[in-house]
Write a structure and sequence with these properties.
The chain has 653 residues and is an alpha/beta fold. 40% of the residues lie in helices and 17% in strands. It has 2 domains: 290 residues, 4-Layer Sandwich (Nitrilase/N-carbamoyl-D-aminoacid amidohydrolase), CATH 3.60.110; 330 residues, HUPs (Rossmann fold, 3-Layer(aba) Sandwich), CATH 3.40.50. The two termini are 22 Å apart.
């Protein structure tokens, strides 16, 4: 796979020999040599060359000198491609500092000196060390015939990969404004913590939350390496908890109950960069007074992607979490509608019911909103409007649903009106073209709008996020409403929300409602605008035309959430959907981009609607795009991919 911006890191907890730097350096090197050659950065624990628990031995001149000798030995023996952070006591003029050395390409590029020294409970660091706040201005140490900077704020910028590495040590994270927050403000996107945090009950959970939250607040990766059980056990136990997080998500970890020598993870620097470009409020001020050390690492030409790629990024994979998420989304949708009704003093809504997923979800939202406001459910006017493509299966489900939810229902057939319209405009009813389909959708919308005028209600839109992305809606037909409740819910999630409500019904003893909702979930997605087949079943199946919504929602998520390029989305999709032919993925991706660009005019005038997730197309909120934007660059990249695939096939032949 193309490396794109993947940057592989490791957090390591080597066995430590207290006060034996050379033995510790040898153990660090041994573990480094076990790592995959694509690992670019290794972080070791606080004072990893000596051990954290040396206590008054830190005063010993011999230990300090041997630490520098061990550091030099590591510099000379580390692989060329690897960057390494190791901890050691470092003397600068008349003070000893708890420091981290950054090694790359056989030299130390800089030292970070710890800022916040704990002096409470079991910690006595000020007894031996001085805070970096007292470092001399532009302090240096002479090491390996070079003046190396020692700083209280320092980042190391890799111009090859785009990684900007910021360093802090243990307590620096636990304070109200961590050192890494300043470093992130200066551009650091890989935050590293060399730690020696001992274990007690519940500390692991708190430490994990600190790391995840710090990575999320700063749109960064966070690599945390902590001292392990080989530290002195005089009074404390060190569990060796290593953590790697990316933008709030834990990618890898070890713990007291799940020990390990090291963990590795692949950081996606591109997604971090794109988030920082979008969410500017976290980085309004570039931090001053931070030393920047540039370097160049060896390029990686290809990688084996080991980080998981979720095929259904909108849908939680764990059943219970998925049910809870779906219920929360349904409540958010209902709360949005309830607020709109309350603010405008409206006590009635009108909604078209087809017996399909989207309208079912919208009706469930209406029912919950009315219950939130203690309104009579008779104020919900649910209308079925059978036409040329309506099947008995969907009509029966629609009727059952309306009855079981105790809403006001009406059936208004549209075939006669549409045929009259065909006669008025000179449309052949046997010509099943786009006019044939859209006339039905617009007739239904006309009926709903006029009923809303009669009842003083709001027309509730049923279209979902995926349909808006692809423009799979009739302009000024089902595209239009007075309030749209599904507009930020993707198609792959709609089914699970309806299913979660079915499970709630079953839990409450309402088997009839459960059964009809499950039947709706099992119905093929269709606008039912073309006549049924000879057996009276749905003939027009959306996914036979567009391709699987599983793929389109995957494309949508990676384009809109992370703004990734087509080639990367294609590669990720091949991993996420190993059973789908590569040619089909490319074909559907091409269709996705074609429709996404050409259908923007529908999104530019979409009605108000509630946002429930991270992606929304509201032109007043999340997405602004000209309707006539060129898609040339995106399509050209897909053309290149297609040419490469053809060349690979010819080579194989």
């Amino acid at each position: 796979m193309n490396p794109y911006s993947y940057y592989e890191v490791s957090a390591m907890t080597p066995s430590v020999s207290i006060s034996d730097p050379m033995a510790n350096a040898a153990e660090i090197l041994r573990l480094c040599l076990e790592l995959d050659e694509n690992v670019r950065l290794v972080v070791t624990p606080e004072l990893s060359l000596t051990g954290y628990t040396c206590q008054d031995l830190f005063y010993e001149t011999l230990l300090q000198r041997k630490s520098l000798q061990a550091l030099e030995w590591l510099c000379k023996n580390l692989p060329d491609h690897l960057s390494l952070l190791v901890g050691l006591p470092l003397q600068v003029e008349n003070h000893l500092y708890n420091a981290a050395a950054f090694i790359h390409d056989h030299e130390v590029l800089g030292f970070y000196a710890k800022t916040y020294l704990p002096a409470y409970n079991e910690y006595y660091e000020p007894r031996w060390f001085t805070s970096s706040l007292y470092l001399p201005h532009n302090a240096v140490v002479h090491f390996m015939k070079k003046a190396v900077p020692v700083r209280d704020r320092i980042v190391f910028e890799d111009f090859t990969t785009g990684a900007v590495i910021g360093v802090e040590i243990c307590e620096d994270l636990w304070v109200s404004i961590p050192v890494s927050s300043h470093l992130a403000g200066a551009g650091a996107n890989v935050l590293c913590n060399l730690s020696a945090s001992n274990d007690n009950i519940s500390k692991e959970e708190y430490r994990t939350s600190l790391v995840q939250n710090q990575s999320a607040r700063n749109y960064a990766a966070y690599v945390y390496a902590s001292a392990g059980p080989s530290e002195s056990s005089s009074d404390l136990v060190f569990g060796g908890q290593d953590l790697i997080a990316e933008n709030g998500k834990l990618l890898a970890s070890t713990s007291l109950m799940k020990p390990g020598k090291y963990i590795c993870a692949q950081i996606d620097l591109e997604t971090l960069r794109n988030d920082r470009l979008k969410y500017k409020t976290s980085f309004e001020t570039l931090e001053d007074g931070i030393t920047r050390i540039p370097f160049h690492s060896k390029p990686v030409h290809s990688i084996m992607l080991r980080r998981p790629v979720e095929a259904y990024p909108f849908v939680p994979s764990m059943s219970q979490e998925r049910i809870e998420r779906c219920q929360q989304i349904l409540t958010l949708q209902a709360r949005g509608l309830a607020t709109r009704l309350e603010k405008i003093g409206c006590k009635s809504v009108v909604i078209g019911i087809s017996g399909g997923l989207d309208s079912t979800l919208a009706l469930l939202v209406c029912v919950r909103a009315f219950k939130l406001l203690n309104l009579d459910l008779s104020g919900i006017l649910a209308v079925t409007m059978p036409g040329f493509g309506t099947t008995s299966h969907t009509k029966t489900n629609a009727d059952k649903l309306m009855d079981l939810l105790h809403v006001t229902s009406r059936t208004i057939p549209i075939s006669k009106s549409v045929l009259q319209h065909f006669e008025d405009i000179g449309q052949d009813p046997e010509k099943h073209d786009i006019t044939y389909e859209n006339a039905q959708a617009r007739t239904r919308t006309l009926i709903l709008m006029d009923l809303a005028n009669q009842t003083g209600g709001l027309v509730i839109g049923t279209g979902d996020l995926s349909e808006l992305a692809l423009g799979w809606c009739t302009y000024n037909g089902d595209h239009m409403s007075m309030y749209a409740v599904n507009v930020s819910v993707p198609k792959t999630l709609v089914r699970y929300i309806v299913e979660s409500e079915a499970l709630e019904a079953e839990k409450n003893g309402d088997k009839a409602l459960h059964d009809v909702l499950i039947s709706i979930c099992e119905t093929p997605v269709s606008p039912e605008l073309l006549p049924p087949d000879k057996d009276g079943k749905i003939a027009q199946k959306t996914e036979q035309v567009l391709g699987s919504y599983d793929l389109h929602d995957f494309f949508l998520y990676h384009m809109l959430r992370y703004h990734e390029r087509p080639a990367k989305i294609f590669d990720l999709a091949r991993i996420a959907f190993p059973d789908v032919p590569t040619e089909e993925i490319l074909s559907r991706l091409r269709l996705f981009y074609s429709r996404f660009f050409s259908q923007q005019f529908k999104r530019n005038c979409m009605p108000d609607g509630v946002k429930v997730g991270s992606i929304s197309f509201s032109p007043r909120g999340d997405w602004r795009m000209p309707s006539d934007a060129s898609r040339t660059m995106w399509v050209s990249e897909l053309d290149k991919l297609e040419d490469e695939m053809k060349a690979d096939k010819q080579t194989e032949a």
